[in-house]
Amino acid sequence: MKRTEIKTLLQSTGYGKEVNVKGWVRTKRGSKHVAFIALNDGSTIKNIQIVAEINPETEKTLDKIHTGAALSVDGLVIESPGSGQKVELQAKNIDILGPANPDEYPLQPKKHSLEFLREKAHLRFRTNTFSAITRVRHAMIFAVHNYFNDHGFYNIHTPIITGSDAEGAGEMYQVTTLDLSNVPKNENGEVDFSKDFFGKATNLTVSGQLEAELAALALSKVYTFGPTFRAENSNTSRHLAEFWMIEPEMAFYDIRDDMDLAEDMLKYLIRYALDNCMDDLEFLSKRLLDEEKNKKAEERSMELVEKLRFVLDQDFERITYTRAIDILRNSKPNKKKKFRFVIEGWGADLQSEHERYLVEKYFKKPVIITDYPKDIKAFYMKQNEDGKTVRAMDVLFPQIGEIIGGSQREDDYDKLYNRIKEMNIPEESMWWYLETRKFGSVPHSGFGLGFERMMLFMTGMGNIRDVIPFPRTPLNCEF
RNA sequence: UCCUCCUUAGCUCAGUUGGUUAGAGCACCUGACUGUUAAUCAGGGUGUCCUAGGUUCAAGUCCUAGAGGAGGAGCCA
Q1: What ipTM does this complex have?
Q2: Mapped to the 3 state alphabet, what secondary structure does A227-241 carry?
Q3: What string of H, E and C letters represents the secondary structure of A373-403?
Q4: Quick one: pLDDT at residue A149?
Q5: What is the pLDDT of residues A174-219, one digit of tens each?
Q6: What secondary structure does DSSP assign to A143-172, as a single string?
Q7: pTM here?
Q8: pLDDT above 90 for A110
């Protein structure tokens, strides 16, 4: 018999029909004459209830069924007399495809800590929380491509191994085929990378932006959505060593167009989740309420679905860095020196406590900050006429902080060249980037959206290690 | 990398000012129950108290070092 997915089965009213389902046991319970098995196949967060009569014939099989076992069940679809579900399956035959020894199987039908499940990442897909996150993650991946496709963007695969060491986004992982126990050296005693696979030093990419710009200056609107690697020793709930980043890059867009796109895209993704993932969002919402039930009312987060709808309905607040500094300088926590870093004046970098104040206390909605001092931002950002600021924009979300960082790019050859010199970036590694400003240069803009940070927002999870299947962080590369 | 906290049964956790044989719930096994909803009820055994030193008559508890984890900070997405 052909397998019916549980998602399909639960929506059917074909009572009396015989079907086959396959899946993994979540719980088994029952009394003397009847056993109830909650079976899940990942097609939905919901389980199908298998009802099995206990008699001398079935007892042997039923005794071997525990949480975690894989079953194939043939049975009749019936209307459930119980109160927890509409449809259930009256078992006619149960095959154990793969047993799970209850003495060894670590997952139980109870609450496990997220830390414990992180150590069991090979099995945590089998929990409600992670199967929900995985389905939402898929929906978001799909929605990203959908959005850009519908808006006339082309997807670009930018390189994962890069020979440029000037991308200006933090520490990089070296990629080499050299024998590390016998590294070739040149006359000066330095590593001789000419003997390496590419004949030069290479790294894993920290951003696809520079290459995406090259494509945008021909195809007008492009985006990348690929893995990104940062060798920073960051130990926080918002950082991964390997993560996925979405980087659109648009010719003929100025900073305002860039912000419009960022806001529209984020709202599209939220709407897509609300339209397509409601079962999972409702589960994740309950999970969050439960997790925070011991917190004081003022420390609890907004209910998940309500929060998503709220952000969807708000225009993001757009302010300049200069205005942000004014607000912060006159704020209570600054005057009372409650900030760890008190804002003294213009030019200071905004710390996460300042961003959180602006987003969570002052405006109480997402905020886009623009026109930062050029000294605290990257070399490729478009310089403003004031000579002090650049057309950068950061989108700040409650709890997560910076979810998007972007800018209009410097399209003037001389200004870009001078900035590269000023910041001591090796000019010879940037010749191809500079050349695009020499031939048919146009205003263009782009941004980077951290996919897992968006997943944090979308699922209400608190730790970025729980929204990616196999997190890579300092000292953790298991699985 | 810095600051703070944590590490006790398979899991979640309690363990008082250092003092007999280290506890509970869940899971597991046995039994009861005509349909349960993380079923319920009764019974059963379960420990490298993270590791290595140290203080002490006596250490799960105190001290030192190390390992791992969490939260916050920096870096950023």
Answers
A1: 0.83
A2: EEECCCCCCCCCCCC
A3: EHHHCCCCECECCCCCEEEEEEEEECCCEEE
A4: 97
A5: 899 999 889 999 898 889 999 999 998 899 999 999 999 999 999 9
A6: HHHHHHHHTT-EE----SEE------SS--
A7: 0.93
A8: no
Query: With contact defined as beta carbons under 8 Å apart, do A303 and A285 qualify?
Result: yes
Is A186 (CB) below 7 Å from strand B?
Answer: no
What is the C-alpha to C-alpha distance for residues A27 and A174, in angstroms, rounded to an integer? 47
- Count how many Cα atoms sit within 13 Å of the Cα of residue A281 in the half-sphere of its side chain: 21
Residue A100's contacts (CB-CB under 8 Å, 6 or more residues apart) are A25, A66, A67, A68, A69, A70
Phi-psi region of A386 (alpha: psi -120 to 50; beta: other; left: phi over 0): alpha
CA dihedral defined by A8, A12, A18, A21, rounded to 10 degrees?
Answer: 20
User: How far is residue A154 from each of residues A243, A250, A357, A449, measured CA to CA in Å?
Assistant: 21, 10, 37, 17
Summarised one tens digit per residue, pLDDT across range A160-170 is 998 876 555 66
Q: Which amino acid is at A152?
A: G
Q: Which nucleotides of B are covered by protein (CB under 7 A)?
A: 1-2, 10-13, 25-29, 32-39, 68-77
Please state, in angstroms and rounded to a whole number, the distance separating the CA atoms of residues A444 and A252. 5
What is the CA A119 to C1' B44 distance in angstroms?
A: 31
Helix (H, G, I), strand (E, B), or coil: what is residue A349? coil
Q: Which of residues 257-286 of A touch strand B (CB under 7 A)?
A: none
Give the model's pLDDT for residue A415.
95
- CA angle (A283 as vertex; A131, A45 as ends), nearest 5: 40
Count CB-CB contacts under 10 A for residue A478. Answer: 11
Name the nearest CA neighbour of A305 among A330, A324, A280, A322.
A280
What is the spatial distance between Cα A202 and Cα A163, in angstroms, rounded to a whole number? Answer: 5
State the Cα–Cα distance between residues A322 and A59, nearest whole angstrom.
Answer: 74
